[in-house]
Design brief:
Chain A has 557 residues and is mainly β. Chain A has helices spanning 2-27, 51-54, 188-191, 427-430; strands at residues 29-41, 59-71, 74-83, 96-107, 111-118, 132-133, 138-139, 142-149, 155-164, 178-187, 200-212, 225-237, 240-249, 264-275, 278-288, 331-343, 355-367, 393-409, 414-425, 439-451, 456-467, 474-483, 487-495, 507-517, 520-529, 532-536, 539-543, 546-556. In chain A, strand 26 and strand 27 (539-543) form a beta hairpin. Chain B is of the alpha+beta class and 273 residues long. In chain B, 19% of the residues lie in helices and 34% in strands. In chain B, strand 12 (250-258) and strand 13 form a beta hairpin. The chains are: A mainly beta (557), B alpha+beta (273).
């Protein structure tokens, strides 16, 4: 009898556990994504790529796989990464494989708690922004604790504490710094009921971030705790929007600023107007000594605690993106004005479908620096460095970019975009080509698409870049045939016909094809990659010249 | 209770804010009084005459040399693509066989880079960025010496003998080697530069100091003992050598290191004349 009772109870327990387990599985969600980028390099004598330069390393691979599990308020995830070895142009310290990103989180309506690796941004990122950019090989995630609390609707409080990722290096005592931060955001339209439907949209925010790093330097007295604070607002009235953020940093002598003890400032102001057929954007930005890293000795693209937003147009056309701008954390002042206008349909100028016109003007100059004292030269290490008037523009232009773009749909089958750019680019300062003159160029681009059927289309780009500096004139052409929604095939060529060195007047041709279905994409490219720079959000990496095959596979579920 | 929690939370936040800032008052430089415990440290700087960032790194090295005097020994190794000779201003070839071998072995691919006593940061990672040289050197100098090295040179013109005596102060496991090399000062030729405080974009009469000119006993030196080292054990080796440079500007640098880890235990420098 006892045995029967025991078996009965045991089976009941197992059945109940199984039922609970099944219910848990049914309520669970699993998401993931992966991407593999592989490269095969071969020698190309015309480009100066020899077998000895490749040195046996014909293959390179960057890959990741991420998985996220969630059940109710609980979620957890991990990302595996491998760089064996990293594709040329990626930091060699990435070489290796492992799980550099792992986290668990509990989230309710008012409260969220995360342990492990996480990304976070306060406001515009001037004092804190951790993020990952796969195309740059950039990841400055925090490893620690993140807490978010919403005491009432309209107020969000956040706190973070941890250390940043630095390739595969584990945190060690007296190594890189510890980061802690606090942010508050108040949305008045959510907080104050009468304002819920108001045409006035108002929010305020404030942040404070501090880093601690030990000082064992024998030459300089270095501050161990460096704090930054920021205040921001956002106001929307009807069709107008205004937002701004100001940040201040106390003394932070570092390798980036040549160990000066000047305090830093960052300021950004946005104004926009948007109505049907017309959009206007104006941005002003000033940066003064605002590099903020959790290791004061680091100079590469790593360990940045904050993010300095760019105000330049992000170009995607081949020749237009030849000279991308990299934000200058030691000092820059600039503005951007952009106007987008749609000439109405069925008007004389607009035609049957209307015509889109976009004009963009961006310019960034150096700030003006004056000696901080009677005896110190500007920027000497171990001094206050300099003083600088807030609104003064130096005559030294880092970058100017004027773009006029017209897009017109001529028929149901054919549309085209014509673009003109005029650029000024201080390559010596921005890319470290010491001694090279400022580049002045004009670029013309014609982008045409013809739809044979609703699924088949052919796109052609014709581009020309004209300059007397650097490598001289270029022309480029691209043909892309798409069979929607799955297939594409592309052929392109960039020809540096104007290079002053006749044996460097090379063609950089590529042929590519790809297939995509739902969230999975496969592509293969063969050809030459010219030396250049890839920038995302003002953060850049060098891309060396290469020749060979490039394969990408990506998917998500 | 709710009010108390709110007040406590605000207090914690305010405390956090005000404890997280350290404002340094001038003077901003340390007043160092370094004691000489006999420990010497080698700073190997990997450089090249077309490396625009290298003059700034060399300035840092010299600043540290001024701070630590004879406790810090500098060796500027010209290797890699930035040391390649080019027709015209940069036609001189300052590369050496040993320098090229070390470049490959230690995976030096960033310029300027340094190694401090060849102590790795992590397995296989020896490079120390310029701005951490001071910290790493201070850490090494704080350690007790495990050996003494004495160098006696006798040169007539460019040819002479180098006598190196190594005396270990403690017992040591493993195998150890002795390396002897030559450095030279005051070599004048062109150098690329991007620091306006130092000079123009191309400094035509740049003065190279502590330039590594070659190994006396091979890239990796030679074994000291075939057995474990005992305290007070001495080892003396004599070399006959012919210099390639100016004897009055040349120095002999000798160091002992652990054969497996490549870490340098003690180093010494002596003028040729």
């Amino acid at each position: 009898m006892k045995k029967i009772l025991f078996v009965f109870l045991f089976l009941s327990a197992v059945t109940s556990s199984y039922a609970q387990f099944s219910e848990m599985i049914n309520k669970s969600e699993v998401h993931g994504s992966f991407e593999t980028d592989g490269m095969y390099y071969h020698a190309d004598d015309a480009m100066g790529i020899t077998d000895s330069l490749i040195n046996g390393r014909h293959f390179a691979l960057n890959g990741y796989a991420e998985i996220i599990y969630s059940l109710g308020n609980f979620s957890a995830g991990a990302r595996f990464e491998t760089y064996i070895p990293p594709i040329a142009g990626f930091d060699p310290r990435l070489e290796g494989s492992g799980i550099p990103y792992m986290w668990a989180s509990y989230t309710t309506e008012k409260f969220s708690f995360t342990v492990g690796n996480f990304y976070e941004q306060f406001g515009n990122g001037l004092v804190l922004r951790t993020y990952q950019e796969w195309t740059l090989g950039y990841d400055n995630s925090l490893n620690g604790i993140r807490v978010q609390y919403q005491p009432v609707r309209g107020i969000i409080l956040k706190g973070v504490y941890g250390t940043q990722r630095f390739f595969w290096n584990k945190y060690t005592k007296n190594g890189r710094g510890i980061v802690k931060g606090f942010d508050t955001e108040i949305s008045f339209n959510d907080l104050i009921k009468p304002m819920a439907d108001s045409k006035l949209r108002l929010s305020l925010g404030g942040s404070f971030v501090s880093k601690y790093q030990a000082d064992n330097d024998p030459i300089y007295k270095l501050p161990r705790d460096v704090g930054t604070g920021a205040a921001r607002f956002s106001v929307g009235i009807g069709k107008f929007n205004f937002s701004s953020e100001y940040a201040h940093k106390i003394n932070d002598p570092s390798a980036i600023n040549n160990y000066i003890y000047k305090e830093g400032d960052a300021f950004i102001f946005n104004a926009s107007y948007s109505t049907k057929g017309l959009g206007i954007l104006a941005v002003f930005k000033r940066i003064d000594n605002f590099s903020y890293k959790s290791d004061r000795a680091e100079t590469a693209n790593a360990l940045d605690i904050n993010f300095l937003p760019p105000i330049t147009e992000a170009h995607t056309y081949m020749l237009a993106s030849m000279y991308p701008y990299a934000t200058q954390p030691n000092g820059e002042i600039g503005f951007q004005i952009q106007v987008n206008y749609k000439i109405p349909r069925k008007s004389k100028l607009g035609g049957k479908y209307g015509t889109d016109i976009s004009v963009n003007f961006s310019q960034i100059n150096d700030i003006v620096r004056k000696p901080a004292g009677d005896t110190s030269a500007i920027g000497l290490p171990g001094t206050l460095g300099y003083t600088s008037d807030f609104f003064e523009f130096s005559d030294h232009i880092f970058m100017r970019d004027i773009q006029v773009q017209i897009h017109k749909k001529f028929s149901r089958k054919f549309h085209a975009t014509a673009t003109y750019l005029n650029q000024v680019f201080d390559i010596a300062t921005i890319q470290g080509h010491t001694g090279d003159p400022v580049i002045y160029n004009n670029i013309g681009i014609l982008d045409m698409t013809y739809k044979f059927t609703s699924r088949k289309s052919l796109r052609m780009e014709l581009q020309g870049l004209f300059t007397k500096q650097d490598k001289g004139d270029w022309v480029a052409a691209l043909l892309e045939y798409t069979i929607s929604p799955h297939w594409f095939i592309t052929a392109s060529d960039q020809w540096n016909y104007g290079n002053p060195e006749s044996d460097e007047q090379l063609h950089f041709y590529t042929v590519a094809g790809g297939y995509s279905i739902k969230t999975t994409r496969f592509s293969i490219t063969y050809g030459r990659q010219r030396e250049g720079v890839v920038c995302v959000g003002g953060v850049c990496r060098q891309v060396p010249a290469s020749s060979g095959f490039y394969v990408t596979i990506s998917s998500s579920f | 209770m709710k009010n108390f929690t709110k007040i406590l939370s605000i207090f914690v936040v305010v405390l956090f804010v005000f404890s997280a800032c350290e404002k340094v008052s001038p003077p901003y430089k340390e007043s160092n009084n370094t004691e000489d415990n006999g420990k010497r440290v080698l700073l190997e700087e990997y450089t090249g005459h077309t490396c625009v960032n290298c003059p700034t790194a060399t300035l840092v090295a010299h600043e540290l040399k001024e701070l630590y005097g004879e406790n810090l020994i500098l060796m500027a190794v010209h290797a890699g693509s930035f040391a390649d000779p080019h027709p015209g201003l940069f036609e001189n070839d300052y590369r050496t066989e040993a320098g090229n071998d070390w470049l490959t072995y230690f995976g030096i691919d960033q310029f300027p880079s340094g190694m401090i006593n060849r102590i790795p940061n992590a397995p296989g990672d020896y490079l120390v960025v310029r701005d951490k040289w001071g910290t790493k050197i201070a850490e090494e100098l704080a350690k007790d010496p495990v050996a003494e090295i004495k160098i006696n040179n006798s040169f007539a013109g460019k040819t002479g003998t180098i006598e190196v005596n190594v005396k270990f102060l403690i017992e040591l496991e493993g195998e150890h080697k002795l390396f002897v090399g030559i450095t030279e000062d005051s070599i004048v030729s062109a150098q690329k530069n991007n620091n306006p405080e130092i000079g123009d974009d191309i400094i035509k009469d740049y003065v190279f100091m502590h330039m590594f000119r070659g190994a006396v006993n091979g890239t990796w030196g030679e074994d000291i003992f075939n057995e474990a080292v005992q305290a007070d054990k001495e080892y003396t080796k004599t070399y006959h050598y012919t210099l390639t440079g100016v004897p009055e500007n040349s120095h002999v640098v000798a160091y002992v290191y652990d054969t497996d880890s490549k870490s340098i235990l003690q180093v010494e420098e002596e003028d040729v004349k």
